[in-house]
Amino acid sequence: MRKNRKLTHLCMRFYLSILLFLAITVAARPQSAPDFSGLWKQDNDRCLPKRSGVVTLRIEHHDPELKIESSISYNSVNSRRAIQNYATDGRASISTGADGDEFDTAVAWKGSSLVFSIEEHEGGGILRSTETWSLIDNGATIQRTRERTNGEKQILFYQHPQRASK
Question: At 32, which CATH number?
Fold first, then answer.
């Protein structure tokens, strides 16, 4: 019984910290938010660490609605696809990733970046991470910085071919 109470208190503190974080980020939201809409292809050579395979994001962004269709393929036989729907006003959403894992995600603005607070339910455990999405290179690139609670950090880059050629 004591373990259950301790777990309940931990969960409540986690969710209260997310609510506080979201309140601060909503207050810091810019007047004119960037538009992440479009078809984006992962730039494997630029990613840290480097990546392989073909990853595309088809994004429909009509703030506060954000729809992301992810397609991942490592060869023509092994490909996966997932669609996630988010609200950029901090409301939590539940979705299934391309790998079949369940994700509980809250998305909110912090300046001109989107911040994703993520709980991934994988193999009976919960992996927590934060992702910050920013448009760089005059809007031609999404920089997606992923940080896990264990200190692991990845930086992924996605190019938008039409925006890059302008």
Answer: 2.40.128.20
Q: What is the DSSP letter of 111?
A: T
**How confident is the prediction along the chain (166 residues), in pLDDT tens digits per residue?**
556 566 565 545 555 455 445 455 544 444 578 999 999 999 999 999 999 999 999 999 999 999 999 999 987 667 889 999 999 999 999 988 877 889 999 999 999 999 999 999 988 899 999 999 999 999 999 999 999 999 999 999 999 978 765 5
Total structural domains within the chain:
1
- What does residue 102 show for φ and ψ, rounded to 5 degrees? -90, 140
DSSP annotation string for 22-72: HHHHHHT--SS-----EEEEE-TTTSBS---SEEEEEEEEETTEEEEEEEE
In contact, 43 and 157? CB cutoff 8 Å: yes
How far apart are alpha carbons 154 and 163 in whole angstroms?
24
Residue 127, domain extent: 2-164
